[in-house]
Amino acid sequence: MIVRPDRGELWLITQPDHALLAHLVMAQWRSGGLEAHPRRASILHAVAEHDNGWREVDLAPTVDADGRLHDFVSAPLDLRQGVWPRAIDRLSGDRWAAALVAEHALAIHHRFHSEPAWFEFFDAMEQRRNALVNRARRSLEDLAADYTFVRLADLMSLVFCNAWTEVQRCGDFTIRLQGDRRVVVSPDPFGGQTIAIAVPARVIPARPYRSVAEVTAALAGARWARLAGTISGGRPPN
Length: 238
What we know:
This protein has eight helices and seven strands, in the order ββαααααααββββαβ.
């Protein structure tokens, strides 16, 4: 779950909806040879489905001891680790997409690699990734190159959905927010296009929620909204 505060409200965006937005954006990407890439379909499939393991978690949001809703960063460890095997299993029909999602799980959690609570997770995920790459008859170098597209798509969507103000960098690209609903990517990967983007959200009051029951009740009465904006290319920030 993405939890976006906004003027006394919380806009709740599911991880699968964030992933669909990432797919919409990456489908318009005109840089790095993606348009004619021999594995384009699997790359875009991985982008669209990379957070499908969060589906069950987002249906039943949890709260911390202070009444704050857990988001995808603060959720309990077992939930954060458990989403990835599910996501990979659901991509069993597309080995390369599954391998890309396994690589994503390893990459975004890399900072935890030396923590004992993550040892088993990394061992299992690396084994699954390597087996998928071997069965696809590709190399880890191929995977790393293709994964860049997945990570870029993820970051573009996350910057928009979370209203992150810090400039994000991936490879040769920078991603930044202008205002609160315009994402600018430099150098321009969209061939001069300005792309309209939107993601659905449930909106509830920004207040402490002392139990899962309180959250469930708030969600039952939530209004639906559409977080809309644009993404385009631009000059690198100074």
